Amino acid sequence: MDDTPQEITSLVGREVYSNSGVFVGEVEDLQLNLNSETVTGIALGNLNAELFTEEARAEQGVIVPYRWVRAVGDVVLVNDVVERVRDPDEERDEVLA
């Protein structure tokens, strides 16, 4: 990732996609660790209802760990693991196979 400093508020409003191009949501806020002055998560709203059915229906957001962020540009790219978070049975089946 690019280590060039930028205003963290510039992330707010950017769309978030998985590495495979699936829309995940939109950045609404950032979770910060003030002691270490680091971003620890991104709070998403306007969620993809197929990935986050209950949260989207309740108009709630989710926080994605910042370590899942792969790239930040015009959009934010996150690991595909976001797509598997909502289906633990499928993930368990892959481990057992």
Automatic annotation (TrEMBL):
Pfam families, per database record: PRC
Domain PRC-barrel as annotated: residue spans: 8-81
Transmembrane regions listed in the UniProt entry: none
Cited InterPro entries: PRC-brl_dom, PRC_barrel-like_sf
Domain of life: Archaea
Protein name, per record: Photosystem reaction center subunit H
